[in-house]
Amino acid sequence: QVQLAESGGGLVQTGGSMRLACAAGTERSFGSMRRAWFRQAPGKEREFVAAIIATGWSGTRSYYTDSVKGRFTITGDNAKNTVTLEMNSLKPEDTAVYYCAAGWNNGPYASTEKYDYWGRGTQVTVSS
User: Fold this and answer.
1) Which of 27, 53, 78, 113 lies at a CB distance of 3.0 to 4.6 Å from 31, suitable for a disulfide?
2) What whole-number distance in Å separates Cα of residue 109 and Cα of residue 27?
3) Taking residues 74-85, what's their average pLDDT?
């Protein structure tokens, strides 16, 4: 069982920046897992934000939903067993609870069904 814990949420003004982190404790294979961030706004379904997937021995590939491309960056730190989401130029529509997810499944990286482990979420609120 992989325990994921998010941190870094809070309140920020429009145009501001925020960094979210997800820690996987002592899970040694975290860096090899598919890791992602999803978000869920009130009254809406959970939606994909970004994913990072290991390729080959040391490479990774990142994917983003269109609405955050150029503003958000997902990175993994295998030494620290973390995955971070750097968010810039934040907009009120980015307000949501952000969830870290990880899994071994192949297939659509934007599908919640492809992730086995989830954090409890951290609230991000962008004021206008």
Assistant:
1) 78
2) 21
3) 94
